[in-house]
Batch of 2 targets.
Target 1
Amino acid sequence: MTRMKKRLLYRGPSCPHLGRRHPGPRGGARTGRWLAPTGQGTGCGKPSLFSVESLIGRGAAVDRQGVVSEVDRGRLYRTEGLILHRTDFGEADRLLAVYTPRYGLLRLLAKGARKPTSRKAGHVEPFTCVSLLVARGRNLDIVSQVEMLEPFRRLRENLELASLSYYVAELITGFTEEGDSNPPLFDLTVATLSRLCGARDPTLALRFFELRALGLLGYQPQLFLCITCQAQLEPVANYFYPAAGGVLCPRHGEGFPDAVPLALPTFKVLRYMQTHPWDQVGALRIRPETHLDLESVLQSFIVYQLERRLRSVDFIHRLRREAKV
Ligand SMILES: [Zn+2]
């Protein structure tokens, strides 16, 4: 690839600078254009996160002249995706919920995927990371080809890990829609499934995912300044108040009946997770009571933002109770 081609950047309706809600594959990719960085584009004026090379990495087809080929502009589009859910559809098909970096959450039809002879069957299991070639359909887009990138097999073989993975999937489906382009959140989700497979403390990987995902979705809890007085929060017993968006100092927390006392170890771990990479967070050793407290605090924040409970949380709790018996 020449230097000129490397400098081409994508500007268009699926540009991540245009905000959370913008058209998915039905509108965005078809009308997006390839422009040089200095061109008068339809985008926001900032260079997009998507260079040609990063798009190639994400599966977009780029021809020898360095422009998006028919695959991305026409009836077909290619995308990386995580299979979050699958349900039976018709006699032999499956309906898939697929999370993608550029197009958000897609509902795709995998025709014939339940036939024993289908080559798609093993590739459209929950929590597999795949490369998809998708054909636009009148009602539903259809999986034309699927290639396995990462099977994450362990997540389906271990019941506890499966329950944690379903929670990740439920969180993504709860917070995202078709058209929600968010490559960093996609990368975090894939990394989290990988961490669940191999981490010493998978529950900590889940807490890290929750906190970082909230930030990437625009709901980052405030953990450093009191929400009321904006004073730096001291390492003391502060208060957590989901409705206000984070933590209150002791003086102001006492004034809100719904604000809950935040134990100091929990507060410290939350701040550490918000400011340190997983390599360092994953090395922490968390006491069981702090773990329960972290879960409770983050869950209260998520339930407040989503305005509903997540079903997989009840399942995780049931498994935990049964494991103790
Ligand atoms: Zn205050």
Target 2
Amino acid sequence: MAECAECGADISAEVALEEGEIVECEECGAELEVISADPLEFALAPDEEEDWGE
Ligand SMILES: [Zn+2]
């Protein structure tokens, strides 16, 4: 279990997460990137530009 980088809510992953995966916090909706799988740690995922890659 790890904490949301935005609101501090406990996040328990039901499946194994790998580094680089993006999960959404159920409490605040923030997108969190897995920066470490063991121990599990999250960081806020960078906002993607709306016009990115178009
Ligand atoms: Zn949160």
